[in-house]
Amino acid sequence: MSQSTSIPKNLQRVRDHGYDNYMEVEKKTRKVLKFQELILSQFNQTIPVSRLDILARRLGFKQHEAGAFVLKFPHVFEIYEHPVQRILYCRLTRKAHLQIEQQKRAVIAQIPDAVTRLRKLLMMSNNGRLRLEHIRIARSEFGLPDDFEYSVVLKHPQFFRLFDAKETRNKYIEIVERDPSLTVCAIERARERVYREKGSDAEDIRFSFVVNFPPGFKIGKYFRIAMWKWQRLPYWSPYEDISEYDMRSIEAQKRMEKRAVATIHEMLSLTVEKKITLERIAHFRLAMYLPKKLKDFLLQHQGIFYISTRGNHGKLHTVFLREGYRRSELVEPNDVYLARRQLAELVLLSPRKATVDRELVGYRRERVGYDMENSRTDYVEDKSVDFGVENKGNVRDVLDSDIGSDVESDFSDDDNHSVEVEDVDITE
User: Fold this and answer.
1) Where is the PORR domain (predicted)?
2) Count of domains in the chain?
3) Residues 261/209, Cβ–Cβ less than 8 Å
4) pLDDT in tens, 317-331
5) Are residues 77 and 137 both part of a single domain?
6) Contact present, 120 and 108 (Cβ < 8 Å)
7) Cα–chain-centroid distance for residue 28?
8) DSSP string computed for 248-263
């Protein structure tokens, strides 16, 4: 890549706490997802707490850390005592199971959109093919199901072709035919909306991007001029074949740099949550003509992208599309995003609320049992008075008498069954 871009190379990196806080929650949900997969892989989807601690060490947790971790999220994990073995077991709560099922249904329902996203991703590559392993690693970001090789690729032979490369022994996904109707970028649709709103005064946005600098970012006079020039610079579309162009001129290299911005912008637009890790973008670097130093390159455009280092002790870099978010919320949410946010809401729920719920359930159970005993006793006493039985003995004496047989028949087993059903409804 050329070093003659009009944007200054060394820019002060300004943190945006909205995205960093988003990643702090993401860090907790990633750990929760690891435990969920571990529990769901066990027989009956339950696991002894002692075995959970042993298996959690393979996930990077220290000794005795797994038990303390699951206790922090009582709305996701439930600890109970086995009725026969009398040892502690761990399982997912009903709310967690509902969230998992909702996310599965959302992913299956949007498979047609996932097919379109995969087609556009392949069309952005220089030869119309990408490694299957690279797409498998990033399948969650693009909303692809876990079995996308079968449910998306092999089920749509009119769009995709799966083959093994003899020289590298790697599986590749190749586009069968390029569709011109899919070559319209998301930024081009945004420009069209702005052009319709502003009319003839929107000539300056023909090659421009939506720029929203983070709070505290200093914009000097010369930087503003450089940005104005860069916004008006023409570039080639990410879907355009540039293999036959001459790249030796400075003008061509500038266009290639701006094309790299457009390519990453379009890749983020194809993701479900408008974000993806920098390491997964690097997997597509050679196939999409992206620069080597991706982090430094993206830091030159802090108004378009934001790189967050939160979430994995600074080892993981998450790239956000700034125009896709407003106040740490997705501007155009989808069903998959909403289902994943429900898990974050369960993680953020206070453990005290779960404790209060359990105490309330226990109080209601005791109250129901207490009311049942009182109603049974009062009912017997009333019957004894009506039939002329003196209330000198206890309740057992009354029930053993001939008159007490009528009293017992009035209190049937159906009443006990109704109390049990009400008890189940109270507990979730």
Assistant:
1) 14-350
2) 3
3) yes
4) 999 999 999 888 899
5) no
6) no
7) 12
8) -SHHHHHHHHHHHHHH
Domain end among 156, 175, 194: 175
Instruction: Check whether residue 83 and residue 126 sit in a common domain.
Output: no
Does 87 share its domain with 25? yes
- H or E segment to which residue 116 belongs: helix 111-123
Reported as half-sphere exposure (CB side, CA atoms, 13 A), residue 41 has a value of: 8
Q: Which of 111, 109, 179, 176 is nearest to 148 (CA)?
A: 111
Question: What pLDDT, in 10s, does the model give residues 164-203?
Answer: 877 767 899 999 999 999 999 999 998 888 888 777 566 6
Distance between the two ends of the chain, CA-based, in angstroms?
59
Residue 104 forms part of a structural domain = no
> Does 296 reside within a domain?
no
Q: Which tokens in the block code for residue 121?
A: 């991703």
Cα 151 from Cα 181, distance rounded (Å): 24
The answer to whether 186 and 266 have CB atoms below 8 angstroms apart is: yes
What pTM did the predictor assign? 0.78
Same domain, 127 and 85: no
* Domain assignment of residue 396, yes or no: yes
369 and 422 in one domain?
A: yes
Residue 415: closest CA among 382, 376, 363, 388: 376
Residue 265 lies in a domain: no
Residue 340: half-sphere exposure toward Cβ, Cα within 13 Å: 20
Residue 195, phi then psi, degrees to nearest 5? -65, -40
Q: Which domain holds residue 78?
A: 17-92
